[in-house]
Write a structure and sequence with these properties.
It contains two helices and ten strands; from the N terminus they run ααββββββββββ. By secondary structure, the protein is an alpha+beta fold.
Length: about 160
Amino acid sequence: MFFRKRTAFFGTMALTLVAGFMLGQIGQAGTPSTPGSADDPIVTKSYVDEKLAQLTGGNSGNTGSSGGGFKVLVMKQGQTLKASTEAGLEVIVRNGNVAAIQGQLGGLSDVTGGADLTGGTTIMANHLLIFARNDGRGIQVNSAGDTYVLVRGAYTLQ
């Protein structure tokens, strides 16, 4: 009998603790976080646009950014395209005679061809190029007429 009372007592205590813990968790579940805090970060579109403009150097003059997808650029003979931030730039040349411009720390990464293109190398059409740094790397159009280039990232067109 003593053992039954003892078992019942400890069983009741265990159930009370579990029930109290669960009620405490349920009570906190509906507590809202403070907007703008680390638990609930809120950012407005204008804030993001402002920060992106600062990172890409704005969208004025001969600079630009393609945002999330590729952007079509029409380039003329003698024009150069270079990365304008350290974030990198992706380029696909669609047509024309285009040559690589080597930077201070190396050439362009031809992802499609699996090669490092040094300065003056003719770029094959439809190859994905990556400008890993903003150290002068770029491309230059050597053919007359319109040359179409797809870009993703921040760039400077001269």
